[in-house]
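Contributing new records

If you add data, match the layout below exactly. Sequence lines come first and carry their own label; structure lines follow with theirs. Keep one chain per record. Anything else will be rejected by the validation script.
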Amino acid sequence: MNTLPAMRADFVGSFLRPEAVKNARLQLASGAITPEDLKAVEDAAIRKLVAKQVELGFKVVTDGEFRHQAWHLDFMWGFDGVGHAPTKTGLPFHGEQAMIDDTFLTGKIAWKGSHPFIGHFRFVNELAKEHGVQAKLTIPAPAQFLAQMVMPFALENTRKFYADNEDIIRDIASAYKAFIKAVYDAGCRRLQFDDCTWGMLVDPAALWMWGTDEAGLRGIQEMNLRINNMAIEGKPADMFINTHVCRGNYHSTYANEGAYDKVAEVLFEKENVNAYFLEFDDARSGGFEPLAHVSGDKMVVLGLVTTKSPALEFKSIVRQRIEKAAQYIPLDRLCLSPQCGFASCEIGNKLTEEEQWTKLRLVQEVAREVWG
């Protein structure tokens, strides 16, 4: 197991985009500025963001995903065989359609020899070094990449390039292995797999979403586990890989709900990650009982502070919930964070930047009270 420690006070990764970044993206789209101009604006915003994270006491920092359009799709676009176009219908979230680009296969998936995220990481890693902290990179899980291409809405197009799922699983896993090596060589020691596929599998509408039966859902669990572990296999011993298990995060709404019980034996016992960032901010995520399945010395980062609302949690209630979770997994294997990012897509959640920072101060205060 990895020797890097988990952080008692942590966060998932994305932050509200500053107005300067949003405006620069609009200007780029209209042709008013160049990509180089946009990068300069992003660079300045990321410098300020990292300094703020350090000021709040965090020892692991991110670039806030300020260079991303969406938390997952930009990563996929960096490989051969993946195309995208503006969506006409969006994805169904509760109360709102997520208007993010349709993303699909145009050929076989393959590593290009480089990836834009390598440069993104190098920039934030240099800032982290200046502040004496570590940088974390967030990317979609291999299972998320696979789901984008093999769920019923995408399968007809995908079958033009892959006759069955086995070949695409191998190609995605191979591309991830190449990326992991490249980003490790660039200095990355903390990598996060963001993964909504498990949330889809526990949702009451899972059978409809996947177009299958209960036995089929169990097979999809095993498929997700296999592709994630294939990508992780052979990773450097000193690289810490965690996964964030999400239920969708778009403009303060969500895509899925359901307790972890149905996936706990596969996800918590068998996925070869170092830690799980888990959503527990409301009743959608069920109880803490499934944490008893978390195997070995893997850590759990409890997402008890919501990013979907500016309402601030009571510290006493957050501490009580940590105590309840500790009935199923030892306290020394628990940490605390917000339940998700603050802006999984450019639109961001419905709170202000100051309310965002207040949430993170709360995480730090409770972590110090609980763990010292």
